[in-house]
Amino acid sequence: EVPEKPLLEPWESCITMADHWSYHYDDQYKSPREIIRLVVNIVCKGGNLALGVGPMPDGRLPRPALERIKVLGAWLKKHGEAIYATRVQAPYASRGQGQDLAYTRSKDGEHVYVIRLWPDAITKYTILGFNFKELEKNIGRRVRSLRHLATDVRMQMLTVDGKKEWMLERKLYGSIIQKVKKQRFQKNQIT
Predict the structure, then answer these.
(1) 113/179: higher pLDDT
(2) Which residues lie closer than 8 Å to 80 by C-beta, 6 or more apart?
(3) How far apart are CA 26 and CA 163, in angstroms?
(4) What is the DSSP letter of 71?
(5) SS3 readout for 19-58
């Protein structure tokens, strides 16, 4: 279980990756995004996560567990600075504008990390209010590809409701980490 607010003492949540602590052939596993959100939700409140995985009868880990461990490992390799050895930072977590925000602070207190998480239901991000026809006219050729600078993910042209739109697939499990100097964070309350 995860508390609503940080506790004033060390704490740990012991949660399974699937529905059971022991191996079950037809177990339902949490999605990689659910696991990442769980890690962030616990860490932003000052806790640790003991993520339980039941091994198969021969001692090996089930394939779904291995797949999720690899995704979590890749995510932590990229964003671990905002997770490992961090401290709690008010307001800890907040919701708004179609995203959840979580906050952590570096051990030395110099930086605040703003972790932006999009809900599972939102899988695509559309650039709104940008006139691509005008851009193409100005540069004299068709726009064939775009890259989202914050995530370094290539955008795709998709047809939505009969209109062509550039969209960003949320392949990074819906997260962007923003590192902010603590003084700037306190002054502006980044959201």
Answers:
(1) 113
(2) none
(3) 41
(4) H
(5) CCCCCCCCCCCCCHHHHHHHHHHHHCCCCEEEEECCCCCC
pTM over 0.85: no
- pLDDT of 57-86, one tens digit each? 999 999 999 999 998 998 898 889 999 999
Q: Which of 168, 165, 170 is nearest to 129 (CA)?
A: 165
Cβ(133)–Cβ(143) under 8 Å?
no
Q: Is-contact 15 49, C-beta < 8 A? A: yes
Residue in the block written with tokens 């179609």: 98
Q: Which of 54, 76, 78 is nearest to 65 (CA)?
A: 54
Task: Of 37, 41, 43, give the one whose Cα is nearest residue 83.
Answer: 43
Question: What three-state secondary structure class fits 176?
Answer: strand
pLDDT at 189 over 60: no
Is-contact 38 68, C-beta < 8 A? no
